[in-house]
Design a protein that fits this description.
By secondary structure, this protein is mainly beta. The chain has one domain: Lipid/polyisoprenoid-binding, YceI-like (Lipocalin, Beta Barrel). This is Polyisoprenoid-binding protein.
């Protein structure tokens, strides 16, 4: 089923939006021991999106993630991920994304290109997003939903620790999938 966004719906997107951390999931997936996937999330972050629905190229998005909030549901693993082997969060407490270009690719999708900084290293990434729609919540807030994901190579950000397996391969994959399920509230 294809959903077409009407002009009225598009117009209501214009404005400044604040990401709602209690209804947003910023997660990641990595291969572990070459045979399974480990999923995790960041629990503390903030972000804003300024949308110009008339000219999406003028839209801007920013996101700041607290690296200490990494959560894989295993305290020992989380401690290792916070260490210098991985995120070096004492020296680099934040992961940031600042958009450099927004491109509308269809009625219900867009690409967000920007600078992703992890562990002090910045690279450009393009994240495809699907627009899931808008709704007014019981408190009168206009909400918009977006979902997207992108695969990055952690070594491109100086995250290089690994361990060889006896059976061949390595303990942690180089490729990491970043996953975004965003609920944003339009500012008054």
């Amino acid at each position: 089923m294809t959903t077409t966004i009407t002009l009225a719906q598009l117009d209501e997107l214009s404005g400044t939006w604040t990401i709602d951390p209690s209804h947003t999931q910023i997660g990641f997936t990595a291969r572990h021991a070459m045979v399974t996937k480990v999923r995790g999330a960041f629990n503390e972050f903030e972000g804003t999106v300024v949308v110009d629905a008339g000219d999406f190229s003028k839209s801007i998005a920013t996101l700041t993630i607290q690296a200490t909030s990494i959560d894989t549901r295993n305290e020992q693993r989380d401690g290792h991920l916070r260490s210098n082997d991985f995120l070096a969060m004492d020296e680099f407490p934040e992961i940031t994304f600042v958009s450099t270009r927004v491109t509308r690719t269809s009625d219900t999708s867009l690409e967000l290109t920007g600078d992703l900084t992890i562990k002090g290293t910045t690279n450009s990434v393009t994240i495809p997003f699907d627009f899931e729609g808008t709704a007014t919540d019981p408190f009168g807030n206009l909400r918009a939903g977006f979902e997207g994901s992108v695969v990055i190579n952690r070594k491109d950000y100086g995250v290089t620790w690994n361990a060889a397996l006896e059976t061949g391969g390595v303990l942690v994959s180089d490729k990491i999938t970043l996953e975004f399920e965003v609920s944003a509230i339009k500012n008054a």
